[in-house]
Each structure stands twice: as structure tokens, then as C-alpha cells.
Amino acid sequence: APVVVPAPAPAPAEPARAASPAAPALIPMPAQRLNFSADALFGFDQSVLGPNGTAMLDGLAVELSGSTFDAIHVRGYTDRIGSTAYNQKLSLRRATAVSDYLVSKGVAPASIQAYGEGESNPLTALADCPGGKRAALIACLQRDRRVEVDVQGTKAAVR
Question: Is 26 helix (H, G, I), strand (E, B) or coil?
Fold first, then answer.
């Protein structure tokens, strides 16, 4: 009679591993400095955002969405017209208005800080705008009126 040899027992299957959702890889964003003309964001000698200003900041908010920030620094600057104390307060009000608007669009409040720099760090030299008629001086000093947004953080890598 033939001898029947039992088939070897099948090897135990590897236990099924639960598919763990991979956390999205984070890539560092290069530090960026974005410059906005204060005249585009606000009226002259104003700190309330105008329609052009909100449109510009809406674009920035979209660009920043999906990112995690180490720091966002918003710095407001003024021109040299007016007292140093007044310009300091105006620059801070402008920086705060930009910060508050970005927070209202979803930027984490803990990552953003506003600074008023007043008339420090002008982009024009005294010789560039010697004075004269007020309207001409205001136009000449336009570059000094600005808000700078420095952004540093990470963004999810797109697969």
C-alpha cells in the first residue's frame, strides 16, 4: 500500500499590519520678507485697511494657508512727516491692523507679532526728498510708508 505523506503545514501568514496614515512630510519654507506699500493698504495717515489692502492681504492669507509658522513678524513703518512719537504709534496701529486681519483669515495668533518701527529705517535719504510743497514731499516719501511681513515656518510637502 502506498504511504501517504501529509503535506507540510502552511507557513503562518504574516500578521496583517494596519495601514497607518502617513503624516504629511513637512518641508521648511525659506524665510520670506514681503513688502506692502502702506499707501496701498491704508490711506495716508490712516491705519484702517482699505479695500485694496484687504484684497492684498487675502492673497497673502491664501499663500500662507497649510503652513505652520515658527514666526511671523509684521513691522509697520511711516515716513518722517509728523512727530516721532506720533509716527511710532501710527506704525504700530498699522502693523496691528495687518496682524489682526491675517488672524481673522486663519493665521494662528500665537505665531504672529506686530511691531511699530515708526520712521526708522527709511528707504529714502534726506537728500532724496528735501521738502518743499507738502504734496510733493508726501509723494516723494511714499516708499518709506510700508508694512513688512517676515515669515518663517514649514509647509506640508505636496505629493
Answer: strand
Between helices 84-104 and 51-64, what is the axis angle to 10°?
A: 50
Helix (H) or strand (E) holding 62: helix 51-64
The pLDDT value given to residue 158 = 54
Q: If you count them, how many residues does the chain have?
A: 159
Model-level pTM? 0.77
Given a contact cutoff of 8 angstroms between Cβ atoms, the answer to whether 116 and 89 are in contact is yes
Terminal CA-CA length for the chain: 65
Alpha carbons 42 and 72: distance in angstroms, whole number = 20
Q: What is the pLDDT of residues 107-152, one digit of tens each?
A: 889 889 999 999 999 999 989 998 778 899 999 999 999 999 999 8
Question: For residue 77, what is the DSSP state?
Answer: E
Picking from 64, 58, 149, 70, the residue whose alpha carbon sits closest to that of residue 107 is 64
- Cell digits for 57? 492681504
Report d(CA 135, CA 138) in Å as an integer: 5
User: What does the block give as the cell for 111?
Assistant: 505665531
Q: Are 110 and 71 in contact (CB under 8 A)?
A: no
CB 74 within 8 Å of CB 57: no
